[in-house]
């Protein structure tokens, strides 16, 4: 069943790409949409059949592959990967649906999007380090091409920069994985059998540093982030949606799965550094966002800031903070996808993303009133306004991390305040006031321009009001992650701080 | 047509002065402008008809009804109509009241003076006594606060006066549309001439207001006062609604502390000739209410023109209606200016020409911040 999540989009990619007759761009899109919808629906079926109380990998599939080097085709899903799988399915559908109807080389484009989706699903499902690495590398190629071919004016520069950074990430990751397996004396790359505890702490720290750098590029964390704003600015809207919504999550997922999961002792040693790194990312991302005049670049820097929260929560490694990191991944996936979609509509209709040029787009007749209203909702969610999923995620991050890293948590909370600052600047300049003369005669906004954003906005509100519908899939698994001895010890320390005199805080105990 | 002996001046709007002096119009003459103006005035005429009937109904049938829940129903109340009202499938009579309040507030003309006279107070007092003759509570309240009900009667007098004014204007605009349909109107000067003729013909129509209470008629504004259509309703209306208006919320945020609102009402410039059509569409603001009403009665030819003209098709209909409406209001103002000229526009007497020019300069000074320049290109 899990293989279908990878195979169906690949089959779709092959059909769209190699269809013997010429197909209109809209037909290519419709075929791609069908092959993207099937895995999405399948992931929902999986979620329905998933047993949240079982913290082991479920629906496992194992096929021996190249046993000589210890590589096996081993898939599984748990509470950490399930929400991200569903998110990947949803955002792939949205990205395809919101692609331009008359896009050039449409068959190639949709094939690449489907391959990208398959590779991301594969990475989330992989239970073998080498298999994860393969999927992690495979997704680089379609993404590179999607930016390089369908991007903006500086697409070549942005795509190459992206490739150099993420290929470096791949090399570091492979080196760390190989080191981990060889030094621990494991016979295969199977995730379940790896045990790093026998390794000297210094070795563990070195390995973890490799993993941190690898995923730090992918997330990205400051100062490894410079590829992201360029990639976002040059990528087309649907690709930005996928990039911010799903692909960055491979980094944070990898940190939790392989950093915290495989090297908990080293994680404990480096955790204070990670927390400081998170704060730097949060504050740097927010500060840079304030200075931007390009809406898309502002949202991109906002992403860098918000991904820092996940690192903070992961560094704290309390049951609540690990759960919060998963929630923040989903929350950021939905919110950043919404913001990029809306910026995309603004750009498509006005031909500009310049905050200093655009004005008054909330004009009810000649502006983009619904897009503007959704943007207000999106930025409120991003700034952590209660009632939306962003609030729940950030609240849990701070609540879970504060007992372990109080100073860092408070500094990160400043980042939330700064989010409100730059997004209010954006809203005030772009959407309020009298419509700018440059954009007085905008083309009509159609249902298909609005529909994907409406879907995301609804989800943001629903999960904001009912976060338990999201958290119930992950809480047992994230709690189990914190049961790793070293992490559990940290959690217990957290629970004995003067602020929290209760048992380790979990989401359900907060309710 | 007229030889101009005294060449205009350095006035920034000298072009428009020359245009009027030479028999042309403020709005450029083009077939599209004619279609725009006549089409919008047709729908405006239909809307004014509804407004007029409702204003007169309120003044006569809701006299001193202090909680007039059903004042917009013109006496025809049913559950179905109530549902339609709540669903907002209706005419926005609030716009008519907005105009009435603007007139009441800015005053001007004989009606305003009369409503402050002792005679009005006596007549209003008699009507109040009759209305509440079986209501000692209200009569007691009237004794305690004698200005309260009197002021309500003043407001109702304005309801009636505006209703009578719009009755004439509605018929005039519908007649214009019919003449256009017959092919008699082909140019903007003809449109202006039609309106001017209408205003002149109705100039001396008496403006009166009476209510029937318990079988007896009470004249609040009797004919003997001598109030007439042009001087006592048309001119104050143009002044209050076209020029001054009120700095309503919703379109632009005016900051009184920053002196964006002049302390002197006479210097207000928020009227229809100054309104920015772009913010139209915001919920509840007066221009939106009127454009929304006219939208229901757009002639097909105008609707098609809007769809052809705009990239947004139906999405910005109300802004387009407002742009057309503003053009038409410049035509009405143009007609009013011609009707009020001190001397005939084609006079050849230099002294009269000079007086006419001074009169026009005065108008142009007021147009300086209006949308006159914008309607030249729109």
Automatic annotation (TrEMBL), chain A:
GO terms for cellular component:
endomembrane system; membrane
Q: Which Pfam families match?
A: Proton_antipo_M
Q: Does the keyword Transmembrane apply?
A: yes
Which InterPro entries has this protein been placed in? NADH_Q_OxRdtase_chainM/4, NADH_UbQ_OxRdtase, ND/Mrp_TM
Localization per Swiss-Prot or TrEMBL: Endomembrane system; Membrane
Ordered alphabetically, the record's keywords are: Membrane, Transmembrane, Transmembrane helix
NADH:quinone oxidoreductase/Mrp antiporter transmembrane domain location:
126-417
Q: Any transmembrane segments, and where? A: 6-24, 31-50, 109-126, 132-150, 162-185, 205-228, 240-263, 269-291, 298-317, 329-347, 368-389, 409-432, 453-471
Membrane topology term reads: Multi-pass membrane protein
One MF term from GO for this chain?
A: NADH dehydrogenase activity
Please, one GO biological process term?
electron transport coupled proton transport
Family per UniProt?
Belongs to the complex I subunit 4 family.
Q: What does this protein do?
A: NDH-1 shuttles electrons from NAD(P)H, via FMN and iron-sulfur (Fe-S) centers, to quinones in the respiratory chain. The immediate electron acceptor for the enzyme in this species is believed to be plastoquinone. Couples the redox reaction to proton translocation (for every two electrons transferred, four hydrogen ions are translocated across the cytoplasmic membrane), and thus conserves the redox energy in a proton gradient.
Q: What name has this protein been given in UniProt?
A: NAD(P)H-quinone oxidoreductase subunit D4
UniProtKB/TrEMBL annotation, chain B:
Pfam families per the record? ChpXY
InterPro entries registered for this protein in UniProt: CO2_hydration
Origin: domain of life: Bacteria
* NCBIfam families reported for this sequence: chpXY (TIGR01964)
Output this protein's name.
Carbon dioxide transporter
């Amino acid at each position: 069943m899990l293989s279908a999540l990878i195979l169906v989009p690949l089959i779709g990619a092959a059909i769209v790409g190699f269809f013997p007759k010429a197909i209109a761009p809209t037909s290519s899109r419709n075929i791609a949409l069908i092959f993207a919808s099937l895995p999405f629906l399948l992931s929902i079926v999986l979620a329905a059949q998933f047993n949240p109380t079982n913290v082991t990998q479920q629906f496992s599939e194992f096929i021996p592959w190249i046993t000589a080097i210890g590589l096996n085709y081993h898939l599984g899903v748990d509470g950490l990967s399930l929400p991200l799988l569903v998110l990947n399915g949803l955002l792939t559908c949205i990205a395809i649906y919101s692609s331009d109807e008359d896009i050039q080389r449409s068959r190639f484009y949709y094939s690449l999007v489907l391959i990208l989706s398959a590779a991301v699903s594969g990475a989330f499902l992989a239970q073998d380090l080498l298999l994860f690495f393969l999927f992690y590398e495979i997704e680089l190629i379609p993404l590179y091409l999607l930016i390089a071919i369908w991007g903006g004016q500086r697409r070549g520069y942005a795509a190459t920069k992206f490739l150099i950074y993420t290929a470096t990430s791949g090399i570091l990751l492979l080196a760390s994985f190989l080191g981990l397996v060889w030094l621990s004396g494991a016979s295969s790359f199977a995730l379940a059998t790896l045990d790093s505890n026998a390794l000297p702490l210094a070795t563990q720290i070195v390995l973890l540093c490799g993993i941190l750098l690898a995923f730090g590029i992918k997330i990205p964390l400051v100062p490894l982030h410079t590829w992201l704003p360029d990639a976002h600015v040059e990528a087309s809207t649907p690709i930005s949606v996928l990039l911010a919504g799903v692909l960055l999550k491979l980094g944070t997922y990898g940190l939790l799965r392989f950093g915290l999961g495989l090297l908990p002792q080293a994680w404990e040693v480096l955790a204070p550094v990670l927390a400081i790194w998170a704060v730097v990312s949060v504050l740097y991302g927010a500060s840079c966002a304030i200075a931007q005049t390009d809406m898309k670049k502002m949202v991109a820097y906002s992403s860098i800031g918000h991904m820092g929260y996940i690192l903070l929560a992961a560094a704290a490694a309390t049951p609540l903070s690990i759960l919060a990191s998963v929630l923040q991944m989903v929350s950021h996936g939905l919110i950043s996808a919404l913001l990029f979609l809306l910026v995309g509509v603004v750009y498509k209709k006005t031909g500009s993303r310049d905050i200093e040029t655009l004005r008054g787009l909330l004009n009810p007749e000649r502006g983009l009133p619904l897009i503007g209203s959704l943007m207000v909702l999106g930025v409120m969610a991003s700034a952590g306004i209660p009632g939306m999923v962003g609030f729940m995620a950030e609240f849990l991050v701070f609540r879970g991390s504060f007992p372990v890293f109080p100073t860092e948590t408070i500094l990160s909370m400043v980042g939330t305040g700064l989010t409100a600052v730059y997004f209010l600047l954006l809203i005030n300049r772009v959407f309020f006031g009298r419509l700018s003369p440059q954009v007085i005669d905008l083309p009509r906004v159609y249902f298909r321009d609005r529909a994907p954003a409406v879907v995301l906005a609804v989800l943001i509100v629903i999960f904001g009001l009912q976060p338990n519908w999201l958290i119930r899939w992950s809480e047992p698994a994230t709690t189990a992650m914190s049961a790793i001895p070293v992490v559990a010890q940290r959690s217990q320390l957290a629970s004995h701080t003067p602020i929290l005199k209760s048992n380790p805080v979990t989401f359900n105990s907060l309710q | 047509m007229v030889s101009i002996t005294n060449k205009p001046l350095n006035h920034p709007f000298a072009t428009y002065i020359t245009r009027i002096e030479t028999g042309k119009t403020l709005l450029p003459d083009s077939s599209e402008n004619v279609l725009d103006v006549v089409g919008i005035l047709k729908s405006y005429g239909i809307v004014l008809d509804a407004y007029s009937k409702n204003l007169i109904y309120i003044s006569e049938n809701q006299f001193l009804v202090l909680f007039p829940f059903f004042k917009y129903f013109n006496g025809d109340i049913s559950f179905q109509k109530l549902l339609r009202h709540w669903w907002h499938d209706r005419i926005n009579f609030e716009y008519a009241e907005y105009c009435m309040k603007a007139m009441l507030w800015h005053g001007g003309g004989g009606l305003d003076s009369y409503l402050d006279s002792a005679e009005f107070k006596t007549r209003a007092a008699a009507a109040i006594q009759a209305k509440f003759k079986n209501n000692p509570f209200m009569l007691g309240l009237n004794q305690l606060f004698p200005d309260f009900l009197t002021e309500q009667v003043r407001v109702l007098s304005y309801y009636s006066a505006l209703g009578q004014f719009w009755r004439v204007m509605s018929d005039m605009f519908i007649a214009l549309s019919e003449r256009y349909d017959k092919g008699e109107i082909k140019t903007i000067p003809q449109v202006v001439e039609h309106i001017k003729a209408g205003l002149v013909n109705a100039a001396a129509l008496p403006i009166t207001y009476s209510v029937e209470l318990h079988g007896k008629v009470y004249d609040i504004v009797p004919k003997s006062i001598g109030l007439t259509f042009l001087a006592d309703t048309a001119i104050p209306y143009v002044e209050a609604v076209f020029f001054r208006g009120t700095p309503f919320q919703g379109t632009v945020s005016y900051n009184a502390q920053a002196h964006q609102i002049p302390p002197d009402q006479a210097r207000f410039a928020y009227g229809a000739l100054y309104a920015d059509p772009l913010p139209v569409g915001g919920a509840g603001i007066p221009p939106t209410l009127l454009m929304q009403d006219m939208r229901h009665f757009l002639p097909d030819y105008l609707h098609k023109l809007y769809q052809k003209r705009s990239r947004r098709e139906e999405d910005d209909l109300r802004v387009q209606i407002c742009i057309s409406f503003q053009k038409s209001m410049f035509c009405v103002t143009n007609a009013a200016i011609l009707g009020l000229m001190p001397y005939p526009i084609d006079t050849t007497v230099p002294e009269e020409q000079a007086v006419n020019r001074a009169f026009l300069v005065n108008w142009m000074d007021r147009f300086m911040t209006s949308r006159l320049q914008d309607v030249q290109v729109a």
